[in-house]
Amino acid sequence: MAKFTIRSFNAMFPDDGAALDWLRDFLYPEGITCKLCKRVTKHYKVESRRSYSCAECGHHVHPTAGTIFHKSSTPLKTWFHAIYLIASSKGGISARRVQDQIGVTYKCAWRMCKQIRSMLDEDIGPLASPVEMDETYMGGRRKGKMGRPMRGDKTHTPVLGIAQRRGKAKAFAIETPDGQTLVSHALAHIEPNAIVYTDQWQGYRGLAYSASRFDHRTIRHRDEYWVDGDRHTNNVEGLWSLIKRGINGSYRHVSKKYLQHYLNEFTFRWNHRKDERPTFLSALDRLAAKRA
Question: Which domains does the chain have, with CATH numbers?
Fold first, then answer.
């Protein structure tokens, strides 16, 4: 992956005007079509506002409209700087550190981080074979042996991961890892007839009998078998390692209400880890293209 340092960031976005010009060029690569003139016309930047004015009729176009930057009093470069910090940090970055880096209040930094994470979900389509599925739990510490929380435990949230080998991954906060939930997610996010590797949790038994007729293969974790030829779930467990290290190291605790936002952040970083293009620019594209 190409390095994109803070020096690269400042050279690309020296001020708010450069950030707004980038947003304009991204959203209107072939020029701005004036709604009143009904054609592409030359537009001039309005100095006192985040808008461009048609040279012929004066109609204003606001590139930030509908984005997370819309109606925000925070400078646009500051927003981009926050995106850079989140996208460039492999293990995540807390709102407190973002506050220190970009010079805003903690309340503002927390709100910006929340909005940025909420928009990083990707519609990457069904994953192709071979695919791994696994579930884990996020939440506070529990005493005793490692394993599934006891029935009625409300401090832990089950999370389902689906990872394509040598490909992309998805993660979802779910209510319960029962058969109906696991199979329904498999049907929605995995291509029909795919080879699906899981552990021996009983919730996966329905995969072989589902409408998509998955080729379900298991690895016996309960007998302490972790790899048996091509039978393993090492890829999705690598995703869990990334997410848990990030949450435990940077965020300490994540509430169930916002857990999906953090899963979006870490799976986005995972899915773009091998890109030649800097992750920051991919994240910026995502946030500019998706309407809030």
Answer: 6-122+279-289 (no CATH), 131-255 (3.30.420)
pLDDT at 208: 86
Judged on CB neighbours under 10 Å (0-12, 13-18, 19+), 223 is exposed
Q: Report DSSP state, residue 259.
A: H
Structure tokens of 257? 């209400």
Confidence (pTM): 0.86
Three-state SS annotation for the chain: CCCCCHHHHHHHCCCHHHHHHHHHHHHCCCCCEECCCCEECCEEEECCCCEEEECCCCCEECCCCCCCCCCCCCCHHHHHHHHHHHHHCCCCCCHHHHHHHHCCCHHHHHHHHHHHHHCCCCCCCCECCCEEEEEEEEECCCCCCCCCCCCCCCCEEEEEEEEECCCCEEEEECCCCCHHHHHHHHHHHECCCCEEEECCCHHHHHHHHCCCCCEEEECCHHHCCCCECCECCHHHHHHHHHHHHHHHHHHCCCCCCCHHHHHHHHHHHHHCCCCCCCHHHHHHHHHHHCCC
Q: In a 3-state reduction of DSSP, which class is residue 53?
A: strand
Asked if 61 contacts 75 with a C-beta cutoff of 8 angstroms, the reply is no
- Residue 153: what pLDDT? 55
> What is the pLDDT at residue 291?
66
